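Researcher: Structure for this, please.
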Amino acid sequence: KQARQLENELDLKLVSFSKLCTSYSSSRDGRRDSSDTTPLLNGSSQDRMFETMAVEIEQLLGKLTGVNDKMAEYTNSAGVPSLNAALMHTLQRHRDILQDYTHEFHKTKANFLAIRERENLLGSVRKDIESYKSGSGVNNRRTELFLKEHEHLRNSDRLIEETISIAMATKENMTSQRGMLKSIQSKMNTLANRFPAVNSLIQRINLRKRRDSLILGSIIGICTILLLLYAFH
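Model: Predicted structure, token format:
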């Protein structure tokens, strides 16, 4: 009788517990469909009710386990026929019912905790999104100004890099021309050192040109003086 009474209480409690979990999930889904900012009605009361019912069911399961243990001790005690099939069948039936109720309770509790944890995570994500949306309108202008300033800095950096590249190319070109001039000068010096006779010949030619110039100038001067003397005589 105690076992059946506890089983009836557990059955009613488990039905109510399952309805609580279903209503909790449905209310959460309805909240998401209606509005992301509407607070959940009786959310904290449902959580408290869940904790209370879970404790009550665990206590009933503990009592039923104790009754089943007492029945098992009675069947194993002296004076009880060990081959009473009806008695063993009754005991096994109560054990199966206890196992089913325990399994159902843990399954429903796990589902409820999973739903609550998921909703808590989604709620924090929704809060972050709402806070971002509320602050994005104020920060849009500031962000746009920062982006423009960043673009200006990038353009300035690009112009500076182009100027530096042009300067480096000019420097390399001038260095190359300087090297070519030095090479030509060194080649000329090499030729002059290799052919000293040519150098002396050029000097002689220059001396002869100067001498011829002096002789021609002297003749022209003498002729001019003679013509002047003849004209004034």
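Researcher: Any notable elements?
Model: Residues 5 and 64 are 9 Å apart (CA to CA). Residues 1-27+41-134 form a domain with the Methane Monooxygenase Hydroxylase; Chain G, domain 1 fold (CATH 1.20.58).
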